[in-house]
């Protein structure tokens, strides 16, 4: 199989053999792909300095097994200016994408949401709402979509003035709010904000705790390295 001019982003790279790179990339039509960029670390490589995270690229590769061989790479726009908090959030999103998506499983919706995330971070938009929406899209695409419409086991809609315990693979279960339980509960207003994509400042703490809990549940005991940097 030969692929050409595929819109892609490099999620991660590491040295491979003497002068090559092993890439994890997110492509629009082929999902996450593992690619060997032969000679990419050589001083005369035509790809030297190009295969960096967050840059919008057109990649080409040939593939017979699990790993493909990079055959072409062109940058289609200037690299976004991700620095400081935006950069750390982008690294977190890259690691999360690599952990949740299987190779060669297309997710064009994730690709478009990722493209939007990079643009919003580069534009200086508040990072936490941007990350929450990307996490929701990623979980849904990986088969772990959140229930953000009804209370668990019923057709009753989530109530904005109620409190819930969100149980993975089940959904929101109504609970009485107590100070002792406050760290384990999420408000209906926050869940509805997550569903609509209109996340206000008062929802940030609850939704960050909720998504951390869900991600930890689905990924297991192996922690995300990027969380130790910032998130």
Low-confidence regions: none
Count structural domains.
Answer: 2
The ordered H/E elements are EEEEEHHHEEEHH
> CATH class of the largest domain, please?
Mainly Alpha
The CATH topology of the largest domain corresponds to de novo design (two linked rop proteins)
Structural class: alpha+beta
End-to-end separation in angstroms reads 38 Å
Sheet with the most strands: spatial strand order: 1-2-3-5-4
- Summed up, the helix count is 5
Total number of β-strand segments? 8
Tell me the major beta sheet.
5 strands, mixed, barrel
Q: Mean pLDDT across all residues, rounded?
A: 93
Describe the structure.
With 231 residues, this protein is α+β, with helices and mostly antiparallel strands. 31% of the residues lie in helices and 25% in strands. The chain folds into two domains: 2-75, Beta Barrel (OB fold (Dihydrolipoamide Acetyltransferase, E2P)); 81-231, de novo design (two linked rop proteins). It contains five helices and eight strands, in the order βββββαααβββαα. The protein is elongated. The relative contact order is 0.12. The model has no long low-confidence stretch (mean pLDDT 93).
């Amino acid at each position: 199989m030969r692929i050409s001019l595929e819109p892609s982003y490099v999620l991660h790279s590491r040295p491979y053999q003497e002068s090559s790179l092993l890439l994890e990339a997110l492509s629009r039509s082929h999902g996450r792909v593992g690619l060997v960029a032969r000679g990419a670390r050589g001083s005369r490589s035509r790809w030297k300095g190009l295969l960096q995270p967050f840059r919008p690229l057109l990649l080409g590769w040939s593939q017979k097994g699990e790993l493909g061989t990079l055959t072409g790479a062109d940058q289609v726009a200037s690299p976004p200016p991700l620095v400081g908090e935006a950069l750390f959030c982008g690294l977190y999103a890259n690691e999360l994408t690599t952990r949740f998506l299987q190779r060669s499983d297309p997710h064009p919706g994730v690709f478009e949401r990722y493209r939007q995330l990079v643009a919003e971070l580069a534009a200086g938009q508040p990072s936490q709402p941007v990350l929450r929406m990307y996490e929701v899209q990623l979980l849904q695409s990986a088969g772990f979509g959140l229930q953000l419409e009804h209370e668990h086991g019923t057709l009753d809609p989530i109530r904005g003035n109620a409190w819930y315990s969100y149980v993975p693979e089940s959904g929101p279960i109504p609970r009485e709010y107590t100070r002792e339980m406050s760290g384990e509960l999420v408000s209906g207003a926050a869940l509805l904000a997550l569903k609509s994509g209109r996340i206000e400042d008062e929802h940030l703490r609850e939704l960050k705790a909720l998504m951390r809990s869900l991600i930890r549940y689905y990924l297991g005991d192996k922690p995300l390295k990027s969380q130790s940097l910032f998130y």
